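Bit of a strange request maybe. I'm writing a small parser for structure token strings and I need a real example to test against, not something I typed by hand. Could someone generate the tokens for this chain?
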Amino acid sequence: MKVAWLARFWVTLRTPCVKYSLLTVASFFFVAGIIFWGGFNTGLEATNAMGFCTGCHEMRDNVYQEYKKTIHYSNRTGVRASCSDCHVPKDWTHKMVRKIQASKEVLGKITGVIDTPAKFETHRYAMATREWTRMLTTDSIECRNCHTLEAMSSDLQTEKAQRRHTKAKTEGMTCIECHFGIAHKEPVGPDGPSELKAKLLAGKR
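Reply from user aminoacidic:
Good idea to test on real output. This should exercise your parser:
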């Protein structure tokens, strides 16, 4: 019965339309495509909202509380970087890759892997390592949503910051090589930032 229904449906799809003009059919699919794409993008952007990111207590009670104490949350200029500004690239390709990767984090929420503060702390280093590694391999693409070495006014920086940013520009370094733990507590683990960087770079050779 099911096979017969599919066969009839396939025949219907292949049968030329005699009731509507080609222009009408093309217009219908054009409008339908716009509605679908608009709805898809609206839903995608909704997952970037701060309310969505902090909707579960795992994020709201842990890393969100740490982030609220940093300059990315509150500063003299009133410019705030949201979760997606730091964790979701702007361009389409990298954004979709990141969204797919984030599904694993949602799975951790659903299965209860990180549903208590103790469990969250147990997995914090592994989660942070994945994020550090990702940012090292993507040249800290999210940081560059707002920051570029070319746009920095070095005369407004401390001498230490000037030296480090000059070195970063000269040697082609990326932001995360120095700015580990910039918005969240840096977790304790077997490998610190330097060891992690060395392992990652060794793996590329």
